[in-house]
Fold this protein.
Amino acid sequence: MSTVEVIPVASPAELDRFIKLPALLYANDPAFVPPLWLERSEALSPAKNPYFQHAETQFWLARRDGRDVGRISAQIDRLVAEPDVGHFGMIAAEDDAQVFAALFAAAEAWLRERGKTRVLGPFNLSINEETGLLVDGFDTPPVMMMGHDPYYSAPHIEALGYAKAKDLIAYWYDIENELPAAARRKIDKRKPEALTVRTLDKKRYREEFDMVTSIFNDAWSLNWGFIAFTQAEIAHMAKSLKPLIDPNCVAIVEMNGEAVGFGIALPNLNELVADFGGRLAPFNWIKLLYRLWRGARSARVPLMGIRRSFSGSLAGGLAPFLIIDALRNGLRNKGVRHVELSWILEDNRAMRHVIESLGAHAYKTYRVYEKSLGQ
């Protein structure tokens, strides 16, 4: 078999090939949804993605016989708490052990040269973006901002010495079904008058967005792998998500006027662009606007959190149920029928209990791997 060559991405043309490669590799996978190339180009641009303000990255392409057969990235995020840890991500390759080995050798060598002794991943590019490798749930397409990987990727990566660090669970929720009786009683029981649920005030959009991301940073601060959103990332996210946010699909729980927790549901863009082949030009952007106007039939809840100071309190215990029920009602009014609640750490038993008690079921598992690089 001919040799695999791994080359660093060093030009706009090579970055374009890097972005488009998964669509070529997985063209025969009916569950794969090609991401929009324009969105991926901006996500991987140091000029447009504020992640690069606190991270160093390198991308590679693997080639054999003049063809691109794989890709990978390596990242060093200066906000990571452990100074010895580097990340890998953006992994996509043919079903070939030699290709996987060559890609990971390049990424690991780059991290070692920069003093890293342990590697975690995949992160595309941050834990606050696409996280984990799909290891269960290959038969259904991914929802927005979640990845999709072929069944063979995990065995090839594990053969290179990578072991599970943490599993992340995605839940599928049929919101047409009535709530289980126990959950309905919990939501409907008499609550303190000071505990209220409201929607987002779009007239104060940026102030509201800053508030919910502040809650998110507080709520998740002790979770495994957590990296707080920077102010630049919050501003970027607020701008990019604004066209997708419906105030009635944001639930904010308050206690005596103070925000206790929140949840945001977004339309599943993957459902709307699945037939675009990654392209918006020349006319797919018109189709997308029309489909957004009509509304998606599926959605995702990517952001949710309860302030840690309310943990263990009545308000803190009720808030997740109230948030999901409010989102459920708002989404049903828009014609949404199914919602992905993701992702949830496998050992976040409290949140998993809430979600499962509402009738959702785990349907995908994403795995973060780790490996000692030695020195």
